[in-house]
Amino acid sequence: MPAPGLRLRGDFDHAGVPLFRDLDLTVAAGGWTCLLGPSGVGKSTVLRLLAGLETGGSFTGEIGADDGGPIAGRIAFMAQTDLLAPWLDVRGNVTLGARLRGETPDAARAEELIARVGLADHVHKWPASLSGGMRQRVALARVLMEDRPIVLLDEPFGALDARTRAEMQELAFETLTGRTVLLVTHDPAEAVRLGHHLFILSENGLSECAGLENEPVRAVDAPETIEMQVRLFRSLRGGVA
């Protein structure tokens, strides 16, 4: 399935209180769009709206794909919490989507992804016996297993140590080549490393950060990468990019 671009435009209220107004977010087809901003401004709500999930609030506006097709059925979503089924082992959780749809999971692909997230020796373990970082890697393997053209990621690497985080970023970027990815992150370095497009959502609305150079995955020590991280951090602090 080709990867379409996405657009979300409108207002959202929670318990009668506005969360955002006149939001107009375009997620470019076939690349990584990163969404940053302080807690509580609606970043995760944006993901849930695109995914068609319950938000606990009221949205007025438009959500759609630029090819005119439905978004439902073409999305893989990874939430902040790993949401692993406690009664399934690592393999069972990675293949859960296919099983819920009544499909036969691709066993070879599942084993490959489990190995690539570094859990080949833990394939039969239950979630309760895994560390937080291991659980997050299971959740990442599960979303990659879905092989969807649209992928929504909510802080997918937040529980990982620095080395593992870099490795999982590279794995996700490689595996999701050509997909339309929207990544919510609080980490400017992560956004600059992975993003084709960067947006900041704040209490004042949505703004795009221009000036990205080279193609991701960018070298963390490249001067232009460091410069963009500094600019992005200043923007997040309310300064001028």
TrEMBL record:
Keyword set includes Transport: yes
Any single Pfam family the record assigns to this protein: ABC_tran
GO MF term list: ATP binding; ATP hydrolysis activity
Keywords, alphabetical: ATP-binding, Nucleotide-binding, Transport
Keyword tRNA processing on entry: no
Matching SUPFAM superfamilies: P-loop containing nucleoside triphosphate hydrolases
SMART domains found in the cross-reference section: AAA (SM00382)
Residue ranges occupied by any ABC transporter domain in the UniProt entry: 1-228
PANTHER family (alphabetical): ALIPHATIC SULFONATES IMPORT ATP-BINDING PROTEIN SSUB 2, TAURINE IMPORT ATP-BINDING PROTEIN-RELATED
Annotated family: Belongs to the ABC transporter superfamily.
Protein name: ABC transporter ATP-binding protein
Originating organism: Stappia taiwanensis
